[in-house]
Amino acid sequence: MSRIAYVDGFYRRLSEPHIYVEDRGYQFSDGIYEVCLVVDGQYWDEAGHMARLRRSLEGLDIPFQMSSASLKIIMREVLRRNRLRDALVYMQISRGVAPRDHPFPDKPTLPVMVMTVKPYSLAANDALAQKGIKIVTMPDIRWGRVDIKSISLLPNALAKQEAKSKKAYEAWLLKENKITEGSSSNAWIINASGSLVTRPLSNEILGGITRESVLKAVTSLGLKVEERAFTYEEALEAKEAFITSASSLVMPVTHIDDQQIGDGQAGPQTLKLRDAYKQVARPS
Ligand SMILES: Cc1ncc(COP(=O)(O)O)c(C=O)c1O
Fold first, then answer.
1. How many CB atoms lie within 10 A of CB 65?
2. Is the full-model pTM beyond 0.90?
3. Above 90 in pLDDT, residue 17?
4. C-alpha 185 to ligand 1 mean position (Å)
């Protein structure tokens, strides 16, 4: 079955050409995106993703007028047309099409939205979580407003490629010897005293929606959280480590730069937290 995408008002086969050459997203990465997880036909953490989408649009001053009700209809229709009930949904909104010039066009453009879906298997992700993942570290060379979920992802793509070339799943990014976050996930450790440590919200990390729900889940488990930056050495000495994102949920980290974390197995607290996260994120 050919994949169907929503492209600026129409549902089209992905194989059909439909790029606007002068879309500012294409030429300047002047746009934002969201990635949502759908399990058994239901969007997880939907309200959080919708709220961040609006925050990102505001952050770049993109005048996107579509109501949340209409957006939600398209989010369901694109799944239906692809006959998927378990999927990752990608939505991107650019400022729109205008003759190429760096400043925003004087005459406001209509933002262009595209939406694609790809199959997702929670069972496969659960199996990976039992094994855990390896990560590598590298310098954080991104711009200063990574709290906006913009489509400007070249440093993230380069970091992920380097991780892949080293047979790792994710790259953690380092600024002044402290971990900021992963190339497409937030970074966490559980230290010797049992505290969960993750970097606080600022313009140096993307405020993950999974991170937000995990913080709620943590409260229900009665665990202690320290929202502060942690060093590379603290990460290596951690009892457990994990990443969070819509596609990885809560994913244990067993090795950082080939050094074993804890006993080198998926951490038991992390796996508990993964279950607790599912309770919070899955719509009831
Ligand atoms: C840089 C970065 N940090 C964190 C996250 C996690 O965000 P979320 O939990 O909303 O998927 C992502 C997700 O794509 C990301 O790209």
1. 7
2. yes
3. no
4. 4
